[in-house]
Amino acid sequence: MLQIGNLTIEVLPKADKEGNENEEVKKKWKGLLIGMLKKVGAFDIHSPTSSALSLKNNSILDIYFELFVKEVEFLIHAGLIKRYRKTEGNVTALKGSLQFSKHIQQNLTHQERFYTRYTTYDVTHQLHIILYKTLLLLKQINTNGALQSRIGSLLLDFPEMPNIKVSEATFERIVFNRKSNRYKKSIEIARLLLLNYHPDLSKGRNNILALMFDMNLLWEKLIEVSLRKYKKDLKFIHAQSRKSFWQPEGGTASAIKPDLFLELDNGVKMVLDTKWKNLNGKNPSPEDLRQMYAYSLYYDAKNVNLVYPGNDASRNGCFLDKDHGGKTETKCGVINIKTKDNIVEWMKEIANGIHK
């Protein structure tokens, strides 16, 4: 999703040969992407009214805007948490520690005032500063009229906060505790929006919000969720299971990490490598096949598979013996799983498609 001023551009995650000009095709892939994001937890929110989200009708940007608004509405309704913070300035009653040098500089002719450093317990802290900054951003870039009034109401209800410069390090420093855990989803969305917003510094009119998803990671996560939920003979599954396979003298070891490593109830170990692309009937690349061969050795798996979305038929295959070129017992298949408009049915199809 790219929003440039009032212009919104959607880049759809197609994985077939259907024509782009077909509106039904566009609607299908847009709904598919939203469904995938929803099933992997990208749209989890704490608000008890999450069912009101019009996931199939809005753009993805509108959905994230509405998610953020609902989260902040929930936080305000539940009560904003307070934290202690250090404050320094002039007060009319002596409290905290007197900053003597600054007191003399500023209050030589104002003996009724004291320049002190003291502790304040209020709602002005980093979490609320980030949320307030995001609300101001939404007021500026939101083009959905239905949300604009809700954003304005939140800005009236939300305490005014100081402005800060936000970077990746700002979010990495945030530590959640028992009281602030309910802020996690709103802060995640704020991070997504604030770090992907690029103001036009030259003219100040065509600000850009760029929100792109790595379909390989999303496809991997959807397969993992599908197997956990619908594969009845699944014994265990690990995502990104890491093993070291090479190390220089005195150096750090390099590791291999298959997308998914699993074992079935019958003892069969499998390695899955997920790819969001269409082979168009061709063989996988030699690089991908060599990678799968290494996985079969290091994970003692006699069944490894490359998993793609698409309408092509799945194909069985196996590695060949290095000496005489005959077939070995180690299978390396190409699994193509046809996409479906119904995301639940598609997840069941994924679980059924991964088999010995």
Describe the structure.
The chain is of the alpha+beta class. The chain has three domains: 2-80 and 131-210, no CATH class; 83-122, no CATH class; 215-245 and 255-353, Trna Endonuclease, Chain: A, domain 1 (3-Layer(aba) Sandwich), CATH 3.40.1350. The chain has helices at residues 23-39, 60-78, 100-107, 126-141, 145-157, 168-172, 184-195, 215-230, 286-298, 343-353; strands at residues 2-4, 7-9, 83-91, 97-98, 114-122, 197-198, 208-210, 234-239, 243-246, 254-256, 260-264, 269-274, 303-309, 318-320, 327-337. The strands form four sheets. A six-stranded mixed β-sheet has the order 8-11-12-13-15-14. It has a four-stranded antiparallel β-sheet with strand order 2-1-7-6. A three-stranded antiparallel β-sheet has the order 3-5-4. Strand 1 (2-4) and strand 2 (7-9) form a beta hairpin. Helix 2 (60-78) runs parallel beside helix 5 (145-157). It is elongated and about 100 Å long. The two termini are 38 Å apart. The relative contact order is 0.11. The model is unreliable at 47-57 (pLDDT under 50).
Layout of helices and strands, plus pairs?
Blueprint: E1 2-4, E2 7-9, H1 23-39, H2 60-78, E3 83-91, E4 97-98, H3 100-107, E5 114-122, H4 126-141, H5 145-157, H6 168-172, H7 184-195, E6 197-198, E7 208-210, H8 215-230, E8 234-239, E9 243-246, E10 254-256, E11 260-264, E12 269-274, H9 286-298, E13 303-309, E14 318-320, E15 327-337, H10 343-353
Parallel strand pairs: 12-13, 13-15
Antiparallel strand pairs: 1-2, 1-7, 3-5, 4-5, 6-7, 8-11, 9-10, 11-12, 14-15
Helix pairs in contact: 2-5, 2-7, 4-5, 4-7, 8-10
